[in-house]
Write a structure and sequence with these properties.
Strand 9 and strand 10 form a beta hairpin. The protein contains no helices and ten strands. With about 120 residues, it is an all-beta fold. Helix content is about 0%, strand content about 50%. The two termini are about 20 Å apart. The chain folds into two domains: about 80 residues, no CATH class; about 30 residues, no CATH class. It is globular and about 50 Å long.
Length: about 120
């Protein structure tokens, strides 16, 4: 298992925590302070997520302008907070987990987790 965080140049720090089945935060799994080239944390003894547990990640930003930055890929006008991870072994070749957290059209939080089997 290995993980890393990503944000644009207004980012100051990134943290990822285990989330217990009751929704409370568990141990800190990853932390990066600074802007460029966050480290890729590899675990020799990887954490095991049990059914109902998850990972929550957070980014901290500093905006020294009078502009409002929205979520998106354009570093000049937008910002984002992404957790990348890799794990092995998998049940199938090229298996992936896709986790998305966003807001729907009514402004409600929406989280999606899907295991995508490979070929």
């Amino acid at each position: 298992l290995g993980i890393t965080g990503h944000y644009h140049f207004r980012g100051l720090g990134f943290e990822a925590y285990r989330v217990h089945t009751d929704g409370s935060l568990g141990e800190l799994l990853y932390r990066y302070q600074g802007f460029d080239q966050p480290n890729f944390q590899q675990f020799s003894d990887p954490p095991v997520l049990h059914p109902g547990e998850g990972i929550e990640w957070r980014c901290h930003y500093q905006n020294n302008t009078d502009k409002t930055f929205t979520y998106g890929p354009d570093a000049s006008t937008q910002e984002h907070c992404i957790l990348f991870g890799a794990y092995y072994p998998t049940d199938t070749v090229q298996e992936a987990i896709n986790c998305t957290h966003d807001k729907d059209s009514a402004g409600h939080d929406v989280s999606t987790v899907a295991i995508i089997p490979g070929e």
